[in-house]
Design goal:
Layout: H1 11-15, E1 20-27, E2 30-37, E3 43-49, E4 55-57, E5 77-80, E6 83-87, E7 94-98, E8 105-106, E9 113-121, E10 126-133, E11 141-148, E12 156-159, E13 164-170, E14 177-182, E15 193-195
Antiparallel strand pairs: 1-2, 2-3, 3-4, 5-6, 6-7, 7-8, 9-10, 10-11, 11-12, 13-14, 14-15
Length: 196
């Protein structure tokens, strides 16, 4: 009968060679993007394309970038100058890595926090990111935090007060910060507020 035989076609076989393209960021004259690779156990790599057209992986194996903020994730990396800043999938720590593919360096300490939507604040030598802290309450506390570019730090709270925060963006001159926020029971498409 229909469907009673064993098929040689499996879900793994169908996606084995499929590559998923994700976020894109400019880093000087170079382009960086995230690329999910089922053939590497689902690892998501950051790839660099130089101005001369050559490409290479920025994240060495087994590093993988993915954010689990809001459960489904948020932006997991950004680039500035010759560096990418990314959320490491396993521990949800913020890391930095030179575009040449050198070993990643941790910018946040191990914790029960998740990070997403990283923005580079070069004027102040820090990152601004969404942070969900699962250590304090049954419901994670959502904030925007700053993370120093030097050293391993838990981050300092910059903005709090809503159930969810997303998409921090600095003005071109670095004097203003804009972000999105919303509260339970609304979903972001129901009642989202834009703050500056």
């Amino acid at each position: 009968p229909y469907g009673s035989w064993h098929s040689p076609i499996t879900a793994r076989w169908i996606v084995a060679d499929a590559v998923g393209l994700g976020a894109v960021a400019l880093a000087g004259d170079d382009l960086a993007w995230s690329e999910s690779r089922p053939s590497e156990g689902g690892r998501t790599v950051i790839v660099r394309r130089r101005a001369d057209g050559t490409t290479h992986d920025v994240l060495p194996a087994p590093s993988s970038t993915r954010s689990r903020v809001h459960e489904y994730g948020g932006g997991s990396f950004t680039a500035s100058g010759h560096t990418v800043y990314f959320v490491e999938d396993r521990e949800q720590r913020v890391m930095s890595c030179r575009l040449d593919g050198s070993a990643p360096t941790a910018l946040t300490a191990p914790s029960l926090r998740r990070h997403a939507d990283i923005a580079v604040d070069t004027r102040r030598g820090r990152l601004v990111a969404v942070c969900e802290d699962y250590s304090a309450t049954p419901e994670p506390a959502s904030t925007l935090i700053t993370i120093p570019l030097a050293g391993c730090d838990a981050g300092t709270t910059l903005v709090s007060g809503h159930d969810f925060h997303a998409s921090p963006r600095l003005s071109p001159d670095g004097t203003k910060l804009a972000w999105l926020a919303w509260n339970h029971p609304s979903m972001p498409w129901d009642e989202t507020e834009l703050w500056v």
